[in-house]
User: Fold these one by one.
Assistant:
Number 1:
Amino acid sequence: MPKPVEKYCRECKTVQPIGNFQEYRRPDRPSPGHSAFCKPCRNRRRREDGLSKTKNAEKKRARYAENPQRALEQNRDWRYGLLPGQYDAMLDDQGGRCGICGTTDPGARAWAVDHDHNCCGPGRACQKCVRGLLCLRCNMGIGAMQDDPDVLRAAIRYLESHKKEVVGHE
């Protein structure tokens, strides 16, 4: 099915380019959807309703506080283009351990879904991008090294060249 290039705004009742509509992902659909209202109408409605991004974030945090499992499920599955159950299957394949250091402690609320940032760009991912599940420390570590194997190899060489033999310490 071809991607739409235009969409009808239910608020201002005009047909506009699809780029004027907020894109969102749904767990039950393979491709992204778009808001029913164009961005200017959506922003105006939010201002009129008194719903700033901060208030929306507070409402979301409150919903997640009531049901923490919801936050985990939302982040671990559809955010990275994973189908329901794929996260759990990946964790089982890794023996319930971090894909790098092998710890059983994720160090956060859930295991980080590691993905290749070069595939879809920052803040986005698809199933092809996903590499595995990592603990918080390993995920932050490779992120700090910009997911660059050459930088990681240089870090290893640096650590090995500065390793000192400690004699007399018990």
Number 2:
Amino acid sequence: MDEHTLDANAVAGMLHEVFGAEMTDHASECAHCGNRAQVGTFRVYDMHGPGVVLRCSICAEIVIRLVRRPDGSYLVDASGVYLKSG
């Protein structure tokens, strides 16, 4: 991690808005490398662009993309992560 990245706690509010629950302590598995960790450990990039990119803290592959549309709804791509239930 460098001065241009943050952990996913920086977008905790956005994740809650999208998923309807506190997500930073939610268990996950990276679809690319199999890293099992809490969502809060993901690295956040592009905080000032039209969307937010979250990457695995181990392999740096994209796990979640979030884009807020002008109407307030979100476009979500979480194809890089398996979110664990319970």
Number 3:
Amino acid sequence: MNVQGTGMAGILKNIRKPARKRKKPVLLRVLVWGCAGITVFTLLSLIIYILVKGVPALSPELFAWEYTSKNVSMLPAIINTVIMTVFSLLISMPLGIFTAIYLTEYVKKETLFIKIIRIAAETLSGIPSIVYGLFGYLFFSIFLNWGYSMLSGAFTMAIMTLPLIMRTTEEAILAVPDMYREGSYGLGAGRLRTTFTIILPSAMPGILSGVVLATGRVVGETAALIFTAGTATQIAVNPFSSARTLAVHMYSLASEGLHIEQAYATAVVLLFLVLLINFASSHFAKKLHKGENKA
């Protein structure tokens, strides 16, 4: 009987232990779902608030080719935003991607130089945008005598987005399995060929995510561009022309206090522009992934 009692007690203990252990996953799930719900609720609240305030204010006058004090057209700002984004990415993308390739594929030891690069990238990613704006104003606008221009704003935004592109590209390359490299080397391919034909195509979805984040930062930036690109309302005709982007245009309308409804309408267009960039990049990344699987 004692043996049986001991056996039953042991069985009961074994049954009770999993029941206690199940409480932790349930609590963790509640916390995760709660945080996810708060995030989604906040996002939806912002989107609904902007749409309710901005959609009724949309009108054909806001998309006139030339800006006037009456129509406060946002079309020049939309075109300037596209130009600024393209200029900034043309500068930051090659530097960030090639730096990440060098750090992951060509450097095997943590030297002092590599540590300095990583610390500099992490420090740059945490600097407020107003500091970038002051630096761009002092260096590009005054020291290089570029003035308030698209070129000053593009180089300033390139410095801001460079750490983001570099770090995301580095993580995407490190996520590529080593067997891809070993298989390529085993077939006689060199490091350069392996990097550009095997590793980069496999890491392209992660690289695109970094580019999308950098694009969103350029599109939504105001403080740094006010000090470097200026607030001129016309379309930039050359790299040394001063022009405002869509975010700066919205800030100017809201700060003046005379066109609050048009500022909300600009926010709607800015929101849809960011969503369009995100959906287009994710669709392109999926196509790349499907093409790799077929190959």
